[in-house]
Write a structure and sequence with these properties.
Strand order of the largest sheet: 1-2-3-4-5
Number of domains: 2
Number of strands: 5
Number of helices: 6
Radius of gyration: 21 Å
Largest sheet: 5 strands, mixed
Structural class: alpha/beta
Length: 171
């Protein structure tokens, strides 16, 4: 697992991040003002270093527009403290296909934008669960039991295994 973060261009400190697991990467812009023209001016005025400028411009895609994430949640909203939708419309089609807009009203996004909002209460699965991931989740849940909370995972892995599983319904 790898987590990369960046500081955002915002009135108060915020961060964007990329989370990479199992060869798949999720990106979250956080609150930021992605405005290429404004960022270029700040860079030209030496108010943004080259490293800061590049991180703000090309964190989720390369200079040539190749996505560096499999799924990106990018906020959009009212400038100057949020990303104006007009600044996301020119993104390359490959980036827009992987981008879901958040922090913006439904009425402000048009099908002609080439960008969409995620449907409410939808879960995007980048990695299917495996036996190992299910076992780790089970062991981490067991650690929440008061007298097991400080038990190392290696010890819990050696604990006796149930011979069968049963699903318990609601109620």
């Amino acid at each position: 697992m790898r987590i990369d973060t960046r500081w955002n261009f915002h009135t108060i400190p915020t961060n964007g991040f990329k989370l990479s697991v199992g060869g798949r990467t999720f990106g979250y812009s956080g609150d930021t003002q992605y405005d290429p023209g404004r960022l270029a001016t700040l860079h030209h005025e030496k108010r943004l270093s080259t490293a800061q400028y590049e991180a703000l411009m090309h964190f989720f895609w390369t200079v040539d527009g190749t996505p560096t994430v499999d799924l990106l949640y990018h906020e959009a909203g009212i400038p100057p403290i949020h990303t104006e939708l007009a600044n996301l419309r020119p993104l390359p089609p490959a980036v827009k296909a992987r981008t879901r807009l958040v922090h913006i009203a439904d009425r402000d996004v048009s099908p002609t934008d080439g960008l969409v909002k995620p449907p409410p209460f939808t879960t995007h699965v980048l990695l299917d669960p495996t036996g190992a991931s299910r076992q780790r989740l089970l062991l981490e849940t067991l650690r929440l039991v008061g007298y097991l909370y400080d038990t190392p995972l290696e010890v819990l892995r050696r604990a006796p295994r149930p011979r069968s599983r049963a699903r318990v319904g609601a109620g």
